[in-house]
Amino acid sequence: MKLKVIQLNTWFGKYFDGIVEFVEQEKPDVLLMQEVVRGGLGELNHGKAGFYEEIKKRLGYEGVCEPMWRVKRPVEYELGVAILSRNKMVESGSEFYFKHLVEYEQEPVVGKGGAWEFPGLLLWSRVETGAGIVKLMTTHFVWSLYPEVNDFQRTALRSLLEKLAGQERFVLGGDFNVTSESEIYAGLIKSGLVDDRPVDTKRTIHPTIHRAGEKELAVDFVFHKGEGFEVVDSRVPLVDISDHLPVVVEYEVGN
Asked: How far is residue 138's CA from residue 120's CA, in Å, rounded to a whole number?
């Protein structure tokens, strides 16, 4: 049974129509998303109010969304992570593995505040497939600037691995804010996660839209853990739908 997964940092839904068009063309079974706006009325300084509700309606997918921040000005809304599925979602849940500040008086500007303000939230859903129920997860890992590894990320990694320990079979996608040369990545791989991106992946940030686009940074990942996941296709298309590029992975899933 084929299972097609797309990982995408949606950048507040700023390129909403492009995201919808891309997903409609690709027809993934599951969409794992970060920087997702839920709720809000009026114009955001950056992005689309009600992005989660609108994309779920346009695509006709089931969904679950959990906030990392609650933003109060200039428009009140929630910002977090989400999972959309073409198939029935049997059970979903979320848990913070790193949490300091989850409410802002104004729109969060990550580069201004610092890593200590960036929470880590793990969102998951158990989804029905032709090969049984598969657990899908997503996260937006604690931020760093260059991206150098900092102590906040080290603490977050230890906590995240504790949450993942004992879970034998899942797919995890996210913006991890680190590259495959980092100790954070090494810790994830050591825990049993398998990197399902193309082996030659050099960047997952958009070369012209992202503010650090001149740097080749591959910080978005799709991992799996456990038996029964065979990668039959893996791509990072260069499309103008966000300041990050989507990671597309198609699995042959066995029981």
From this structure: 11
